[in-house]
């Protein structure tokens, strides 16, 4: 598997507030640029999304894919939400995580991601695309939580 790309942002809200936005996957099409649809297929024992089908339109990359989520978070929102690709048409891998940590009165969010496509792509271009995806996602998350 390829190396992960990672970036961090501090959000002016509690980890619990950030986790509430991250866990509301069906609202992703409202505030994210590329996700057109998100459908929860099943939930875990605590009622959080477990498997989610997404429709993605990121310009050059369009796909319908399913992610499986793992929620390793405390009641205060601190912890890690991770996901792995279950099935897709174009994507070969989309494995990532949000790590939420208390940071004073806010939350430090670290987003890591590995994306691989079924079509060939130079590693340098793939990492640049991952960086754009991560930075955009963190900025959109920050706006959504703080807005």
Task: Describe, in plain words, how this protein is organized in 3D.
- This protein is an alpha+beta fold.
- It has one domain (5-146): Alpha-D-Glucose-1,6-Bisphosphate, Chain A, domain 4 (2-Layer Sandwich), CATH 3.30.530.
- The protein is built from 3 helices and 7 strands, in the order E-H-H-E-E-E-E-E-E-H.
- The protein has helices spanning 15-23, 28-31, 123-146, and strands at 5-11, 35-43, 49-58, 61-73, 79-88, 91-103, 106-117.
- The chain has a 7-stranded antiparallel sheet.
- Helix 1 crosses helix 3 (123-146).
- It starts with a strand and ends with a helix.
Based on the model shown, name its key terms.
7 strands; 3 helices; seven-stranded antiparallel sheet; globular; alpha+beta; 50% strand; 147 residues; Alpha-D-Glucose-1,6-Bisphosphate, Chain A, domain 4
Map the helices and strands:
Elements: E1 5-11, H1 15-23, H2 28-31, E2 35-43, E3 49-58, E4 61-73, E5 79-88, E6 91-103, E7 106-117, H3 123-146
Antiparallel strand pairs: 1-7, 2-3, 3-4, 4-5, 5-6, 6-7
Helix pairs in contact: 1-3
| The CATH C-level class name | Alpha Beta
CATH topology grouping: Alpha-D-Glucose-1,6-Bisphosphate, Chain A, domain 4
Order of helices and strands: EHHEEEEEEH
pLDDT < 50 stretches: none
Structure summary:
With 147 residues, the chain is an alpha+beta fold. The chain is 25% helix and 50% strand. The chain has a seven-stranded antiparallel β-sheet.
């Amino acid at each position: 598997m390829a190396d992960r790309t990672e970036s961090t942002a501090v959000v002016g809200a509690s980890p619990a507030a950030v986790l509430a936005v991250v866990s509301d996957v069906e609202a992703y099409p409202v505030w994210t640029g590329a996700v057109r649809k998100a459908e929860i297929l099943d939930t875990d024992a605590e009622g959080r999304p477990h498997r989610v089908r997404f429709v993605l339109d990121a310009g050059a990359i369009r796909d319908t894919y399913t992610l499986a989520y793992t929620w390793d978070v405390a009641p205060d929102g601190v912890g890690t939400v991770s996901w792995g690709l279950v099935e897709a048409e174009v994507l070969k891998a989309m494995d990532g995580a949000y790590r939420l940590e208390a940071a004073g009165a806010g939350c430090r969010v670290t987003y890591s991601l590995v994306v691989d496509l079924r079509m060939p792509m130079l590693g340098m271009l793939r990492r640049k695309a991952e960086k754009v995806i991560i930075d955009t996602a963190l900025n959109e998350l920050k706006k959504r939580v703080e807005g």
